[in-house]
Amino acid sequence: MSTAPRIAIAGAGLGGLTLARVLHVHGIASTVYELDASATARDQGGSLDMDPESGRQALLHAGLLEEFRPLSRPEDGELRLLGKDATVGFRIPAPEPGEGDEGEERPEIDRRALRDLLLRSLPEGTVRWGHKVRSASPGAGRPALTLSDGRTVEADLLVGADGAWSRIRPLVSEADPVYSGLSYVDCLLRDVDTRHPAVAELVGRGTMFALADEKGLIAQRNGGDRVRVYAAVKAPEEWSRSGLIDPADPVAAKKRLLDLFPDWDEGLRALIAESDGPLVARPIHALPIDHRWDRMPGVTLLGDAAHLMSPFAGAGANLAMLDGAELGLALATHDDLETALNAYETPMFPRAEAAAAQSADNLTDFFHPDGLRIARETFIALTSGGEAR
């Protein structure tokens, strides 16, 4: 740009940090406002597979692809699909070292490791920790955000990268996330190869889906010899907040959750029974599939703030990073701010809509009474190069 704009980014997730990094690569400063007190203030979740056309493309634009490689785990790319009797109905093996076209690989990486990589790549002080955004407004000619301590920050560009319940989104859209009808309960098993060898054998080297009775147990290899488990159940939204799954009482919470899977194989039930630490309920929400907004001067969104979807397309983090990279590139290559924002939003809207539609379809299909068969057909179509149903 002909003059350096003042850029404020709300949210230090993967999308916001990718944007800040790409801007930095092109000599453009930005400030990221994050509510967490530090980079280690809370758990960052499980593993991600980096798609070559989105997440890895973003890392390339960020100049971090080579640093990413030793942190990633291509050996954890296996996928297994099981019934509730633990019979494997479909399997995609993990790639062998050096096997296949590198451009087609989707190496795994823990979300924390990826976030730390992005944080290390930014100048000190770029992220303002403990700066919670309370609200945002159009301002007096420039958008502004108000922090929880009452301070107001004006900017030439305000980017909402602050997730599902974005405080920036109301400036451009009246849409709110809607409950999908499905809730997760997160569990974690540590030292699985030594303490839980049967679980390690069942899950394999990657992600395992066990589907039946309109429910699911989804287990995922993480780094550090851990397995993260997501028990998926259809339930009213209030169920996840009702106290039935109380993090302060893990023994009772496990029993209540196991009661929902009464006739499932004991090896699968062990994913819950042997889990370490508290169980955490997470209702799954999504924005409208076709969510978009009219151009608001000096304001835009990326990632979940722009296109929150369920996790069943495996696209959320990858798209957030691609959003951040493409927005950064647009700002670096256009002299006019509004031209840059149009250049970013125009392809982002249909790209996000396609992923959100696939995610919504997969949620409906996988948790259908015949979900196991439908999921198998979906994965076969994907691996054979066909269209998923």
UniProtKB/TrEMBL annotation:
Residues 7-357 form the FAD-binding domain. Its EC number is 1.14.13.-. It comes from the Bacteria. This is Flavin-dependent monooxygenase. Keywords: Cytoplasm, FAD, Flavoprotein, Monooxygenase, NADP, Nucleotide-binding, Oxidoreductase. One of its GO terms (cellular component) is cytoplasm. It is an enzyme of class 1 (oxidoreductase). The keyword Flavoprotein applies. The keyword Nucleotide-binding applies. InterPro entries: FAD-bd, FAD/NAD-bd_sf, TetX_monooxygenase. It comes from Streptomyces malaysiensis subsp. samsunensis. Consists of an N-terminal FAD-binding domain with a Rossman fold and a C-terminal substrate-binding domain.
